[in-house]
Design a protein that fits this description.
Elements (H helix, E strand, L loop, with lengths): L1 E6 L5 E7 L1 H4 L5 H14 L59 H17 L3 E4 L9 H11 L6 E5 L4 H7 L5 E5 L5 H6 L2 E5 H11 L1
Parallel strand pairs: 1-3, 3-6, 4-5, 4-6
Antiparallel strand pairs: 1-2
C-alpha cells in the first residue's frame, strides 16, 4: 500500500499513513480526467446569455424607404441585422450546458488526480483540524507549518466546521471541502492537498 506523510497542527511529523491503493494508487488517465473536468466546468455555466433576433427587436414595422428610386439598397425593415439597431444573427440564446457523466467516471477521475498528487508528494494527512473559535491567526500559523510555500492548498474535512470555515475564509489560496463534496476540479486547482485523518476514511469508503 502507498504511504503519505502525516502531520499534527503544530507541525510535528507523525508516522506515515497507509492509504488504499484503489483510491490513491490509480494510473493517470488524461482523457478521462479532461472529460470529467470539462463536463463539471460546463455544468457550472449559467447559460443565460441572450441576444435578440430581428423578430425580437421592437419597432421596424414600416419599410424605411420606398423600394426603388432612392439609390440605396432595398430594405424591408430598420430592424434587419445589417441596419443600425437591428437584430443579431446567430447570437447566443439561453441553454443548458450540462453533460451527462456516469458516476463511475467521476469517481475514477477523482482517484486519478488524487493518485497523481500522491506520486508528486503534494498530498499529506493532518491528524486533526480543530479551533476553539473563529480566529484567523491560529489557522495561518498552522498553514505556515504544514504548507510553508503558501501555494494554493486544499483542505479536505469530514464535515463542515464553522470555526474552520470562518478561520480560513480570509486566507488567500486556501479552499475547504468535505470528503463528500470533493471533486476532480477542486484537486486539479490545488497545488497541495491536505486531508484530515477522519476525512480520509470517508473518502476511501466513497471511492474504493
Amino acid at each position: 500500500m502507498a504511504t503519505v506523510k502525516a502531520y499534527m497542527m503544530d507541525g510535528r511529523e507523525l508516522e506515515p499513513v497507509e492509504v488504499n491503493d484503489a483510491v490513491f494508487g490509480v494510473e493517470m488517465k488524461d482523457s478521462l480526467v479532461h472529460g470529467v473536468a470539462v463536463a463539471q466546468l460546463n455544468a457550472a455555466r449559467q447559460g443565460n446569455a441572450a441576444t435578440k433576433t430581428r423578430h425580437d427587436v421592437s419597432g421596424g414595422g414600416k419599410k424605411p424607404f420606398r423600394q426603388k428610386g432612392t439609390g440605396n439598397a432595398r430594405q424591408g425593415s430598420t430592424r434587419e441585422p445589417q441596419m443600425r439597431g437591428g437584430g443579431t444573427v446567430f447570437g447566443p440564446h439561453p441553454r443548458d450546458y450540462r453533460q451527462a457523466v456516469p458516476v463511475r467516471w467521476k469517481r475514477q477521475a477523482l482517484c486519478c488526480v488524487l493518485s497523481d498528487r500522491v506520486r508528486g508528494e503534494a498530498l499529506c494527512v493532518l491528524d486533526a483540524l480543530r479551533f476553539d473559535g473563529p480566529k484567523t491567526k491560529p489557522f495561518v500559523e498552522m498553514l505556515d507549518l504544514i504548507a510553508p510555500d503558501r501555494r494554493k492548498t486544499l483542505f479536505v474535512t469530514a464535515n463542515i466546521d464553522a470555526n474552520v470555515m470562518l478561520s480560513s475564509r480570509n486566507v488567500p489560496r486556501v479552499v475547504i471541502r468535505t470528503a463528500v463534496d470533493l471533486n476532480t476540479v477542486d484537486v486539479l486547482d490545488a497545488d497541495r492537498v491536505v486531508i484530515v485523518r477522519d476525512a480520509l476514511a470517508q473518502l476511501e469508503e466513497r471511492l474504493a
